[in-house]
Specification:
The structure is a homodimer. The radius of gyration of chain A is 16 Å and the shape is globular. Chain A has helices spanning 71-81, 130-139, 146-153; strands at 2-13, 23-25, 27-31, 34-35, 44-46, 59-61, 66-70, 95-98, 111-113, 119-125, 160-166, 168-171, 175-180. Chain A is 15% helix and 34% strand. Chain A has one domain (2-180): M1 Pyruvate Kinase, Domain 3. By secondary structure, chain A is an alpha+beta fold. In chain A, the strands form 3 sheets. Chain A has a 7-stranded mixed barrel with strand order 1-8-7-11-10-9-13. Chain A has a 3-stranded antiparallel β-sheet with strand order 4-3-12, with no helix packed on it. A two-stranded antiparallel ribbon of chain A has the order 5-6.
Chain lengths: 188, 188
């Protein structure tokens, strides 16, 4: 099994009813279910258009508790859209990672371990949707069609969703260890 | 995304303290966390030697709620061990599936959907350990070294572990639909 290291450059939470846009906080306790107060917190949540195998609104297991993006992939999206930068806030991300550029390719079942033992488990790549594109558009008003173009530019760069495997405090600046799951001989 | 169909040929539960060996029941309600009363029931459970990234006994997210084996793979193990059959009971399996022979290869994130909408999500392959081998040995006393040989013969045939994604009743004889996750373009 391969390992890697990366750094937590921002922790963010979506804790207002009005928007999915996140705001930076210096630290937070991860519980089973995610970040308390965040709009994606919960061991279960109502299914949406991402889970067409269930009627919309069905209570299902929440594997999308924490979303993580990589700084490098955000910059790739920005470069392709010809804007200066894309902030993790606009994507509704909870964690901004630096030092593991191809985060979106991290296989399901991989672990992200924090210095104090707190652990996340990767539940797969996130798929771009239109809402973050609309948010990006607001910040670059003179650039046409950013919202639509984001879906294409964000493809395979949109980061991952995780579940909390082991609760604990996490801090901006934490150095994390990534255990990369080998799907041919997977971790348990 | 590819689909497949299969049949639930047995439902089994490990509901005594003494053993991991399961016994057949005609139906059961799957809750978030698994089968109530089963030794693997729970949204969380204490980590063991399978999760060396955490100190043994740490409370972690339970992705091993329901174990499923395929009848075909059990027969392959039996053939290789030169015994008549291997029962799912001896492996501590909760569900015996027929009609999807290469169950162990089912990718993480795949869904198993029951006729009434109950849903399981595949959390990856199970890895053979020594205990089921010792159980098999008990039933074929005259065959030497079955316990040790099971680990090798069970490799990549030991079935999968699942979490309950959507609760509901399941019944012996249910025909299930399997949504096979394409890891290049994964389901959400």
């Amino acid at each position: 099994m391969k390992n890697a290291n990366a750094k937590i450059n921002a922790i963010l939470i979506a804790d207002t009813h009005e928007t999915f846009v996140t705001r930076r906080i210096p630290e937070v306790r991860l519980e089973f279910g995610g970040m308390k107060g965040d709009r994606h917190f919960g061991m279960t949540y109502p299914s949406d258009s991402r889970q067409p195998m269930y009627p919309k609104g069905t209570e299902i297991l929440n594997r999308r508790q924490i979303t993580i993006v990589s700084e490098e992939e955000c910059q790739q999206i920005a470069d392709e859209l010809r804007v200066e930068y894309i902030l993790p806030e606009w994507l509704g991300a909870n964690i901004l990672l630096n030092g593991y550029p191809e985060l979106t390719k991290l296989p399901m079942g991989s672990r992200i371990l924090f210095p104090n033992g707190t652990g996340l488990i990767c539940m797969g790549e996130n798929q771009p949707c239109i809402f973050p594109g609309e948010e990006i558009q607001k910040h670059y008003e003179t650039k046409p069609k950013l919202a639509a173009n984001f879906v294409r530019s964000g493809y395979k760069r949109r980061g991952i969703v995780c579940a909390v495997e082991r609760p604990g405090e996490i801090f901006e600046g934490d150095e994390v260890r990534i255990l990369i799951n080998d799907l041919k001989n997977p971790m348990q």
